Each structure stands twice: as structure tokens, then as C-alpha cells.
Amino acid sequence: MNNSSYETVIGLEVHAQLLTETKIFCSCKPEYGADPNTRICPVCMGLPGALPVLNRESVTMAIMMGLALRCDIAAVSEFSRKNYFYPDCPKNYQISMYDKPLCKNGFVEIETDNGPRNIRIERIHLEDDAGKMSHETGKDSLVDFNRCGVPLIEIVSRPDIRTGLEAVKYLVRVQQILRYLGICDGNLEEGSMRCDVNISLRPAGSTELGTKTEIKNLNSFKAIEKGVEFEVERQRRVLEEGGSIEQVTNLWDADSGRLVMMRSKEEANDYRYFPEPDLLPLEVDGEWIDGVRDMIPELPLEKERRFREEYMLSNYDSGVLCAEKGIADYFEIVAESTGLAKKSANWVMREIMRALKNLGCAIETFPVEPEKLAGLIALVEDGIISGSAGQDVFAEMIKSGADPKEVVKKLGLEQISDSSELENMVDSIIAAHPEEGERYREGKKKLLGFFVGQVMRESRGKANPELARNILIKKLGS
Ligand SMILES: [Zn+2]
Prior knowledge:
Elements: E1 6-17, H1 56-68, E2 72-73, E3 76-77, E4 79-83, E5 93-97, E6 103-112, E7 115-128, E8 132-135, E9 141-144, E10 151-157, H2 164-181, E11 193-203, E12 213-218, H3 221-240, E13 248-253, E14 258-264, E15 274-275, E16 282-283, H4 286-295, H5 300-311, H6 315-322, H7 325-338, H8 341-359, H9 370-381, H10 387-400, H11 404-411, H12 419-432, H13 434-441, H14 447-458, H15 465-477
Parallel strand pairs: 12-13
Antiparallel strand pairs: 1-10, 1-11, 2-6, 3-16, 4-5, 4-15, 6-7, 7-10, 8-9, 11-12, 13-14
Helix pairs in contact: 1-4, 2-3, 5-6, 7-8, 7-9, 9-10, 10-11, 12-14, 12-15, 14-15
Bound molecules: zinc ion.
């Protein structure tokens, strides 16, 4: 996408559903997948005379995200009505924040090929969600109002992103932070995190912004990357042919891998914003902000840095381990208890992650507790069992959740590390293969492998290979 004549300019708007107990302006409890229109009341249905009451928890969560993204938190912010008519919006307006948002001027750090870069955040504001339409072809359109009034934060970036890949890196980071904070489950497919992309092209070197188009309905990272590439190419072709870009909103159609034009884009004044008359300005004092600051855990980027320094892990390893807080916590318990960071990291990144994928379960409900995995790693490292026996023990632990030592005993996998037992075995093997012994002594040292193989066969894989090797060298050489 690096073209000498044009530069791509991308800004992202992320809507994240907050995991509050109740909706933002009423006491309905949202629940994904509930029967349609069973989580509603006069307030979220916008019935005449119903008055909104702001949910304090939603403000706390929005401040959390604001602080995590290094924003300034406004002492006074204001809700506004954004007026529009659509069947999924029974009030005929959305309660959002317009010119006085709660959080402003932050940034998200992403890794690029040219090193780390900050994507600036313009604002984070609170608003209520609309309902959900479903259109059955040839039939009626249906609307479910359960989602009306679910609290959202909208995170608006500055147009600092240059490629589809950078957009994905930014979104992955935002998703990780939302999950670390525990304020949104970040599920793109279920729509609890939604992303709109604004794209424009401008002549390279220019600082003026070109006309932008918007893509909505991007419900996977892959769709985002492909949608951006598709639209950048389209705009480039139009501009190169001397045409001009129209300000439109496009929907991404994942099935066909194409963009479908939805409507020409509204201007802010089409929404006739005005301050919400039923809500007071939102005042947030320093005490509230300090309280929220104390609730913020170590965030993914800081954790990655600490893992690199404390455990001497690579960028790649620390990135993989810190992608999910639960995995990072699990790894730390294993590493602390074995004292072997890299070995522990390998086990978590390979065996544990593979098992989680196969079982389709989260680390929080994984049957092998981190202390038990540490026990298993110690058994392998101390030579009590072989590496391959370790894999068998692990498979058994997943099934039963049992202690590794018990599994080793039960499966009879303990390595023979007793010298006298191995010496007897080596003596009889050497006696049974006099010819090979002779050739070994004449200089064919490769035959050592043959003898080790015999010992492993004789012991049915239980001999400690290192020990067997040393005994063989000693006995064959004499
Ligand atoms: Zn309600």
C-alpha cells in the first residue's frame, strides 16, 4: 500500500459495549442472547414521561478506559441528543456526547516495522446503544429492543493510521486493554466491540486531508484489513483517473469480500445535536478519578516490557503470553515456581495453548492448574521422566486434572536413573553384541548410537538416555 504518489489516512471509531450490571439510563439488565424484547422498560423504550437516570458504573468504566489510554478526564462533560429516525431507535434520538466528551487527547502505542508508534486518541465518550434489526428476505423485518440503552463507549482515533495492518494492530491493542480492564468482552462477532473505519487518500507530502469514506459492519480483524485494502485501491483508481471521491458510507460484505455502498454520509448538523434536557452535566471530581486509577491493573504493554526484563523473554514470547491477562497470570505462576522462565514460556505457548484450542476452553477453566504444570516441568528437567513421557503425562493430566507425580506412578513412566540397574543392562547388551563392540573400539564411534538404542529398547524407553550413554562410553572403551 506504499505508493509514491498517495498517502493513506485512516481513522477508527470503536464502539465497545460496557459490561455494566444494568443499562446506562435504566435498571434493565442486558443479556446477550435473551429472548427478543424481554429486557426493556419505559425508559429504554423512550415512552412519554420516562426519565433517564445515569448509571455511575458506566461512567467509572469509561474513565478507566480514558486513563488506560492516557486521556485527560473532563471535570464537566455533557450528554447531547443525536436525533435520527430509524426503526431500531424507539426514542428517535440517541443520548450521546457531542462537544463536551468525557475523555480527550490520549494515545495507543502500536508496534510497526519502523518501531513503536503512538496512534493519538481524539476522544472517548459515553452513549446508549440502539436495538437490533434483522431482515428476512421476502419476509418482514424484525426488531429486538433488548440492546437499546446498553452503555457504549466510543473511542475515536486521530487519522494517524496508514495501512490496514496498522489498523488491525491498533484494534488488537484496544481490544486487549478493554479485556484487561474487564469492562468489555471485546467480541467482534457478537458485536460487543464494533469498528467503523474512515479512509481517505492524499498526495504524498500533503498535510491536507482528502475526502473520506466510511466502512461499517466489519466484524473480524480479517474483514478490517481486507476492507481497508479494497477501499484504498478503489479510491486510488478514482483519483488516478482524475475523478473525485464522494463522501459515502460503505458496508463490508464478508461473503463476497466486497464493499456495498449504504448511504451518503451524514454531516454532524444532520443530527441536530442539542444538550440532553433530562440529564444534568456530568461532573467528575479528582477523588472519583483517583479511585478509578487504583482499579487499573498492569496493562498489556507494561506487562510485556516487564516480562522481557524480568524473565528475559523475547518480544515475540512476551507479546504472545500477554495477549490475554489470564494466560500471562498462568505463565507467571509456572515460571515463579519452576524458576525456568523460557522453559515455562514454551510449555504455555505450545502445549497449553494447543490444549485450550482443542478443548475450546478458557485458561480460567483449564483442568491443569499452573502449580501442577510446574510440577510436571520439574519432573522432566530433573530427569525423572523423559521429554516424550512428559507429553503423555500432560495428556493424562488434562483428562483427570491429577497431580503429575501420581500420573507418572500410575503409567509407570519413571526413568531408570539408577546406575547399578543400568550398568547391569549395559553389560548384558555389550556381551550380546561382541562384533559391534570390537568395531567401536577400532574407531567406529558412531556405533555408540546403536548401543544407546539397544538400551532404550531393552528398558522400553525408560532408561535415562544421558546416563545410559555415559555408562556405555565407560564400559565400551575399556
Ligand atoms: Zn430499560
